[in-house]
Every structure is written in structure tokens, then in C-alpha cells.
Amino acid sequence: MKILIVEDDLSFQEILRKALERERYLVEVAPNFRSALLKISDYTYDCILLDINLPDGNGLNLLRELKAMKKTGNLIIISARDTIEDKVEGLELGADDYLAKPFHLAELLSRIKSVLRRNNQGGEPLICYGNVKIHPNRFEVWINEEQIGLSRKEFEILLYFMQRPTRIISKGMLAEAIWGDHFDDVDNYDFIYAQVKNLRKRLYTSKANIEIASVYGMGYKLIEV
């Protein structure tokens, strides 16, 4: 899952980035209003951590921009400003949570998981499709009640599809979600083909009754077979 940190304090930004990467999140950062707006305009994130005090703009104004773009889902405000007015305004503008600084990293990680579980999984700890179950917080995949091992990228790809069953996913959407904005630097999607091929093989050999099907000229779709 991909998280954007909008935070101008570079040392704190780095602490957050390392903590999130230890939890196996794909992390991108934006140190100011302008760079955050550009990233959010161009890319999609599973969760955004937004500081209100930015050097070139107010984080609440950025939240207004996100609301206009319908991109406010899974957003947590992290701010040293702890007034009830800021909290109410932030939540009314579409933020899912508000965490006042200073805070413990364990609490932030818990709130991120809670927001993702509530908005992406209907509040359930498991995602199920066909005879496949995936536990995002434990990085576990079960098929026919037997746990199987997947590489990190295979797990992330499967999770992405399991959260969007039967929806057509373009190669560009998948690349952006799993590899972040680094995929802009590559010339082709060979890395996507290789990972999807390996994941398909694992699902088949484990007797999963779901399949990542190719949709000609469009991308992929997770279906039951």
C-alpha cells in the first residue's frame, strides 16, 4: 500500500518514512503545499498523512483542493495545532482522523491500519474472494485454509486486486500503486508482466479458484473461475 507524507520538518518526515517502510508500506514524501498538490493530482495514494502547517500554504486549503478532486479518502491530519476548531474543520473537509503532535509512532500506525481497514475492507480484518483469504496487517495469504508464501510484490499485487475484485486494472494503475512514481522512469511494463505471471502460477498451483485474467487492450481483472 502506498502512503504520502506531507510534512515540512525533514527530520520528522524521515522518522515517519522509516517507520512506515518497516511496516512494508510504499512511502512517498512532499515537503510543501505545492509538491503535495502536484503529487496528489498525478497519483493515487492509499493513505495521506497531512500536516497543516506548511511553508507555502495551509494544509486545510490543500484538503479543500483534495475534496474538489474527490481524493480525500484515507487521510489523517498530523499537526501540532490541537484546537477543536482545526479538528472540526479538518474532519468536515473530509479527513478520516486527526492526530495531534507529539504522538507515538505506534499510535499513528494503529490509526493508519484502522482507517485502511474501515474504508478499504468494510472494517473487517480479512479480505476474502473465492477460496482466497488475505490478512493485510499480518501479510498472510490463505488458500483452502492453507497459508501460502508470496514475495512482497506478489502480496501487494494480490492485495490490490482483492480490494478491487472484477474491476479492470490497467498496467499503469497497477505500476503506480505498487511501485509508486518510480515507474515513470521505466520504458516498458516488463516488470509488471513478470510479477503477474509469477503470482498467477502461485495461485494456480495452490488451487485458488480466482484468477488474474487479461483484458485485451485494457489490463487485468480479478475473477472467480
What does this structure look like?
- The protein has a 5-stranded parallel β-sheet, sandwiched between helices.
- The longest helix has 16 residues, at 105-120.
- Helix 4 (84-92) links the parallel strand 6 and strand 7.
- The chain is an alpha/beta fold.
- It has 8 helices and 13 strands.
- It is globular and about 55 Å long.
- Helix 2 packs parallel to helix 3 and helix 6 packs across helix 8 (190-205).
Topology of this protein?
Blueprint: E1 2-6, H1 10-22, E2 26-30, H2 33-42, E3 47-50, E4 53-54, E5 57-58, H3 59-68, E6 75-79, H4 84-92, E7 97-100, H5 105-120, E8 127-129, E9 132-135, E10 140-143, E11 146-148, H6 152-162, H7 171-179, H8 190-205, E12 210-215, E13 219-224
Parallel strand pairs: 1-2, 1-3, 3-6, 6-7
Antiparallel strand pairs: 4-5, 8-9, 9-10, 10-11, 12-13
Helix pairs in contact: 2-3, 6-8
List the keywords.
five-stranded parallel β-sheet, alpha/beta, single chain, 225 residues
Summarize the structure.
The protein is α/β, with parallel strands linked by helices and 225 residues long.
